[in-house]
């Protein structure tokens, strides 16, 4: 038994070897997906309920795997975030988003911003700001056509660096939203100091509206916080008319969720904009 104990501590067990291999293989598969153009973006409309108009979209990544079929981001983004792979993915998403904007502008659509999700690791990485600067120049697209969504976790790493990068983005006209707001390290301290534009209420709070009083209370608190700090506030994951109504009553008029639209193909998103803008 003692022998086994020592072996267990010292040596790789077969199941561990398998885990490591599959982890490595998965990373290689993600890299291959980038090289072979297996990713694509879908676009979920964001609605201003005061006018009913779509005022923007969120770009969400999808993986069309040649054998496994459609894979959602929860099944590869966390793995990619363990290495610089997430930076390659982020760069791909940014470039694809700007290509989409060029397509839309060329087809006569009025400028409508698209928000992209950027991992904290990528956001504070060297070259991030230079990459966006170059990209905007290369595609000749104004910075206010993209927005960056980042989660709160990134702020605790290096406040000064975050402020510097955000100031650089601001100078380009790129707005910044705090994604999944309320689920991370909320601190009034950083909220006041950072040049933010929007708080995005996480869907875990929105989905508790109505059936749990706390859901309403948390949404109300976030809306009030945003108002006090003069930030925009948008609710994600709005699925029912009741949730929409409560949010409107709280003063949160920017909504995103299945109640309005699922994430759409580039073409379907463009059709919505065309129809809206021909009125
Ligand atoms: P997120 O940024 O919080 O995105 C919102 C997620 O909620 C999306 O899931 C969206 O499809 C889903 N959703 C939208 N409306 C509703 C609704 O009414 N009800 C419910 N239950 N869900 C709704 P998705 O596309 O599977 O993305 C999951 C997460 O993966 C995202 O959460 C984001 O953290 C990450 N992700 C997605 N695309 C990218 C990307 O391009 N880059 C990075 N770094 N992360 C991404
Ligand atoms: Ca997001
Ligand atoms: Ca969320
Ligand atoms: Ca998220």
UniProtKB/TrEMBL annotation:
Top-rank lineage group of the source organism: Bacteria
EAL domain boundaries: 23-277
Subcellular location: Membrane
Family statement: Belongs to the ammonia transporter channel (TC 1.A.11.2) family.
Name the UniProt record assigns to this protein: Amt family ammonium transporter
Biological source species: Marinomonas communis
Full-protein positions shown: 737 to 1015 of 1021
